[in-house]
Amino acid sequence: MKAIFYGLRNNHVYLVLITLVCGTVVLWAWEKTPFLTTILPPQDHVMRLSPVIPDDKIEEKQVSVGGDISEQSEKDDKIKEKQVSVGENISDHLEKEISPSTKEVSDVEQVSKQKNSSKQGEKKNLVAPSSSVRTDSSVRGEDNNNLMSHVEKQACSYAKGKWVTDDSRPLYSGFGCKQWLSSMWSCRLTQRQDFQYEKLRWQPKDCKMEDFTGSKFLSRMKDKTLAFVGDSLGRQQFQSVMCMVTGGEQRTDVLNVGEEYGLVKGRGAIRPGGWAYRFPNTNTTVLYYWSASLCDLVPLDITNLSTDVAMHLDRPPAFLRHYLHKFDVLVLNTGHHWNRGKLNANRWVMYVGGVPNTDRKIAGIPGARNLTVHSIIKWVNSQLLRYPGLKAFYRSISPRHFFNGDWDTGGTCENTSANAAGMEVLQEESSDDLAARAVKGTSVKLLDITALSQLRDEGHISRYSIKATPGAQDCLHWCLPGVPDTWNEILFAQL
Questions:
Q1: Are residues 236 and 313 in the same domain?
Q2: 165 and 274 housed in the same domain
Q3: How much of the chain, in percent, has pLDDT values that exceed 70?
Q4: Based on C-alpha coordinates, what's the Rg of the chain?
Q5: Of the four listed, 56, 268, 403, 490, which is most buried by Cβ atoms within 10 Å?
Q6: How far is it, in rounded angstroms, from Cα 183 to Cα 144?
Q7: Rounded mean pLDDT of 412-437?
Q8: Residue 355 has pLDDT above 90, yes or no
Q9: What is the pLDDT of residue 75?
């Protein structure tokens, strides 16, 4: 025997085999023998592995605080009750906050407020609504700083603010921008001596408006088309943006592409129906189309130059119907041609539904204009579904500043001080109620310039217009550079 064991000591393989056999016997006896189970711990407590918890269950496990530990004592039971209460509160919020919907987040905050108000005594144990919002941001992987920046940008009201002096203005020279600017609107070419109106800049109350530069504009509008459609104030805005983009400098590389849009001078016409220019380096097109009423105007007899013209109040201009698909940004305006004198002079006859209007409520100028503005905005809004890349704006009305009369009755606007009517706008609602009501509930944005322009009566052409009738003053159109530049800065900020 001594020899045998001596041999085994020299052979480790035999020792391993003996150990395995003995271990098997012990385990079998442990499982089958009641006596051994009273001495040794149960088999499953020794051999069971901890379960693997999936990542998506970790949060659920953390919420249901307690478990086996809380069953150890009465004191732990009380702690568990409080923890479960908190856990249920969090769970209620999380179930609603998993969706990125803003409305649902608002609903969560409302539920939190109701729960907090009903449990004032347990305030320390409840999760604050602000905590719920942060949880929602983390669930969606949003960066809180970027989110706040986005909210602030969305909340900015460019219509509220004040005019401030800025010696870096104007953005271009009234002497130099002769390629795009009509001489009758360039007050630098007139006898006017005071040009402080060129030094004012609009500063929004709740945010900083991005500085406009021609290079930024062309970069942002690369391969895009900006179209202004409206009356002579729309034409001023068009000429303003051309001067702003070029800095008032001569540009031989800019192409006249009016023919692409049918904007050519007709036989016997004083000027074409509009203009279109393209900056070839960025393939950016800026155009203007004359449509003083935003109605579809159709001569009743195309062979007769003095024929009446059907003014379809509920139908957009044919130009828009034909070319809207080519636009990326559209700015509409109308207003000052809505008077009986203009309609009679142009021989415009109101039509609704394709036939002459018989509704007395619409026959009046306010009713007719109201129908047209709502109709054009409704139509454009319906087209945004077909052209999701299109951004559409309706510009609120530009204010008139005639005092003691009108165009032909001695009205004047000779003030040269911007302080006369104040410098700040704080009102929440637009001064153009019709425009605000028309865009409400649509995806057409309001370019609200009425109240801020109302403060600038010194910025009109007044008696300095080159082509004005002797004794008459232009208190409707603006000197350029001037107020319309601000309209374009606000437009640029919203692109």
A1: yes
A2: yes
A3: 67
A4: 38
A5: 490
A6: 51
A7: 88
A8: yes
A9: 42
Q: What confidence tens digit (pLDDT) does each residue in 18-66 have?
A: 666 666 655 555 554 444 444 444 444 433 333 433 444 333 333 333 3
- Nearest partner of 179 among 109, 242, 115, 237, judged by Cα: 242
DSSP reduced 3-state for 298: strand
Same domain, 129 and 190: no
The reported pLDDT for the residue numbered 269 is 81
Question: Is 8 inside a domain boundary?
Answer: yes
**Structural domain containing residue 198:** 158-494
Omega before 481 cis (within 30°)? yes
Domain boundary among the residues 149, 184, 210 is at 149
Q: Per mean pLDDT, which range of 69-73, 219-223, 393-397 is the poorest? A: 69-73
Tokens 């990125």 belong to residue: 100
Let me know whether 120 and 208 are in one domain.
no
The answer, yes or no, to whether residue 288 has pLDDT greater than 70, is yes
Domain-embedded: residue 52:
no
Going by the DSSP 8-state scheme, the letter that residue 270 receives in this structure is S
Answer whether residue 40 is part of any domain: yes
Q: Which two tokens stand for residue 243?
A: 């001067």
Residues with Cβ within 8 Å of residue 428, at least 6 apart in sequence: 157, 160
The string of DSSP letters for 171-232 reads SS-TTT-TTTS-GGG-GGGSS----GGGGEEEEESSSPPPPP-HHHHHHHTTT-EEEEEESH
Mean model confidence pLDDT for the chain: 78
Distance CA 175, CA 163 (A): 24
Please count the other Cβ atoms lying within 10 Å of the Cβ belonging to residue 330: 22
DSSP 8-state class, residue 412: B
164 and 307, same structural domain? Answer: yes
How many domains would you assign to the chain? Answer: 3
227 and 309 share one domain: yes
Q: Token pair of 33, please?
A: 């023998």
293 and 376 belong to one structural domain: yes
Neighbouring residues of 441: CB distance < 8 A, sequence distance ≥ 6: none
Judge if the upstream peptide bond of residue 170 is cis by omega within 30 degrees of 0. Answer: yes
When pLDDT is averaged across residues 315-324 and rounded to a whole number, the result is 98
Confirm whether 187 is domain-assigned. Answer: yes
